[in-house]
Amino acid sequence: MKSYILVSIASFLIITNTVFATTINIPADYPTIQQGIDAAVDGDIVEIAQGTYYENLTINKEITLQSSVDFELLEDEAVWHNNEYIKQTIINGSVNSDPNKRSCLIIRDGDIQPTIKGLTFEG
To answer: Cys-Cys crosslink for 50: which of 32, 71, 78, 88, Cβ 3.0 to 4.6 Å?
Structure first.
């Protein structure tokens, strides 16, 4: 009986976290991706409009970082394999003047698993 209650509580918490996830739109809600990441909480989606963003990003929570691509459209295999949509949202990490300290994305706190989709990283 106790295990049933624990499973029920765990299921409720997982469903609740998904239902109340917030989508943060970049640049509509925040001018930079990092500001959107900083404002997000576990379970939120940071959705990035198409364009090139010159930033060094750090993620330290379980969020989804994604382009504003219609992912249902990408379920069509012909569309998915050409990467046309993914190439339209670029994170360029070459903003640091020291080429030895450049990075597009750092994921901190080793036991988190953020989701990243529909983005191109370069620089």
So the answer is: 88
